[in-house]
Amino acid sequence: MPTKKSTKNKEEKSTPAKSQKPMESTEDDVDEKEKKVKGAPTLLRGFRDILPEEQGRWNMIRDAIRDIAEAYTFDRIDLPILERSDLFLRTIGKGTDIVDKEMYVFTDPSNRSVALRPEATASAARAYVNHGMLDRPQPVKLWYMGPMFRHDRPQAGRYRQFYQAGFESFGVDEPIVDAQLIVLGLQILKDLGLDVKVQINSIGTFECRQAYLAELVAYFRQHRSKLCEEDKKRLQKNPLRLLDSKDPATVELLDGAPQILDWLDDKSKEHFMKVLEFMEEIEVPFELNPYLVRGLDYYTHTVFEFVLAGGDGEKSQNALGGGGRYDGLVELLGGRPTPACGFALGIERIARALLDAGIDPPQRPQPAVFFAQLGDASRRVGLKLFEEFRQAGIPMAEAFGKNALKGQLEAANKLGVQLTLILGQKEVLDETIIIRDMESGAQEIVDVKKVVALVQKKLHSDEGVAPNTQAPISDIK
Ligand code: AMP
After folding, report:
1. Which atom of ligand 1 is least distant from the CA of 323?
2. Considering only CA atoms, which residue is closest to atom 1 of ligand 1?
3. Which of 56, 139, 185, 384 could be joined to 172 by an S-S link, Cβ 3.0–4.6 Å?
4. Per the record, which residues fall in region Disordered (predicted)?
């Protein structure tokens, strides 16, 4: 279980880039640090190292995801990071921010246009078609975890390489699938100790959306002069995105805008109502958000996002994850018509939320035994002993790099180990080893071949070291 602490770790108070300059600017890619650290290569802007001190929290997240994936019988799939760029153009769609502005597209040495994946649903659907998964028992339930790449403007919670864990369920169009995926995502976040809710909407089928879009465009055209430049472009290229615009003028106009829920056909309405009923049934905290559309073309029917309850979750960059139904995607990629639904969680955002909530990973168990050596012959025995203890399930600490016994005992004390094994030259010759009880200072000389079993017994019995066999440290040569 994660532990909740009031004090925050010093780790990863990452300083998001403050610059809000447009991405096209070349200056934008010159990190402040890049200017300062002369000589040493630095990270590209929007990329980051996940340092050892962050790994405890990341492992906690990875474990929670894996546990839930297994409990809900999803099968792991690993998908390539590099794909033909066409895969994303066809699925996410031209006119979307991801494809138009954020894709890392380049020509590979074989003169093919390739892209670093900006998300993995399209790749999962490609794999489903490529490997004939339609012929397997449906639903085919897949999960993945790995890095995604979007050349977005770096800011708090937005990186150019970030990690997602995704869940995709292919082959069943029942609303229960949507509901179960939502529960699954919520459960991961709840297991981690986060207080979250779901924002949900339906964007219907492609057909009913067309009629709605015509109405939406007509409405915003009347108010075109009030729109910012970005939203004017959206009106032309991807009008649905006007619904989640952050521009205050557009947000104000939304009050009078037509709402997609009023344009859903009967089947779409029924599907959505059933999803909501399931969620009510199992008391999932959800909020209807008529402006939630998600930025990708392939979604149909249910769309949803996970946000922190109580936080300023309305801002989409605070979403911990999101997804929806994409009934047309497999067909779009040349497969037979296949309903599907899925979502992805952003690992950095979850790690950040845990840090902000003061939720710390469980401490790694500290070794109870330390091995102190004197000289090379004793180091050689130490290497072997280290492995014997590992195989016996007793983690052992060492300071092979130190020479003096004093320094090694200080290191052992710092670690708070229960026992230290001391091997001097004499003991190597005698094939013995000293076991020192760190609390009482009592020492015992034992047969080196029996030391693993003896230590195991002492650690489990609390019996300590027999006091009558003390050997002064100064005797050890
Ligand atoms: P999306 O499908 O684009 O909504 O992404 C799903 C989740 O991935 C989001 O809710 C975020 O948690 C995370 N995410 C998306 N883009 C980024 C990014 N540039 N940096 C960090 N996390 C991201």
Report:
1. 2
2. 322
3. 139
4. 1-37
* Strand pairing category for 161-170 and 196-202: unpaired
Q: What is the pTM of this model?
A: 0.86
pLDDT of 232-258, one tens digit each? 998 988 898 899 888 999 999 999 999
Tell me the pLDDT tens digit for each residue of 20-32: 333 333 445 555 5
Classify domain 3-205+265-359 at the CATH topology level: BirA Bifunctional Protein; domain 2 (3.30.930)
CA 145 – CA 347 distance, rounded (Å): 9
User: What one-letter code names the amino acid at 351?
Assistant: A
463 is in an annotated binding site: no
Domain ranges of the chain: 3-205+265-359, 369-475
pLDDT digits (tens, 9 = 90+) for 428-474: 999 999 999 999 999 999 999 999 999 999 998 765 555 434 444 44
Residue with the smallest CA separation from ligand 1 atom 17 is 158
User: Where residue 314 falls among pLDDT bands split at 50, 70, 90?
Assistant: very low
> How far is ligand 1, taken at its centre, from the CA of residue 97, in Å?
13
What's the token pair of residue 211?
């009629």
369-475 belongs to CATH 3.40.50.800:
yes
Residue 168 counted as an annotated binding residue:
yes
Residue whose CA is at the smallest distance from ligand 1 atom 4: 322
For the CA of 295, the nearest atom of ligand 1: 3
* Mean predicted confidence (pLDDT) in 320-349: 96
Measure 305 CA to ligand 1 centroid, in angstroms.
10
Say what the pLDDT of residue 474 is.
44
Instruction: Dump pLDDT digits (tens) for 155-182.
Output: 888 999 999 999 999 999 999 999 999 9
Pocket of ligand 1 (CB under 6 A): 119, 150, 152, 157-159, 162, 164, 319-322, 344, 346, 348-349
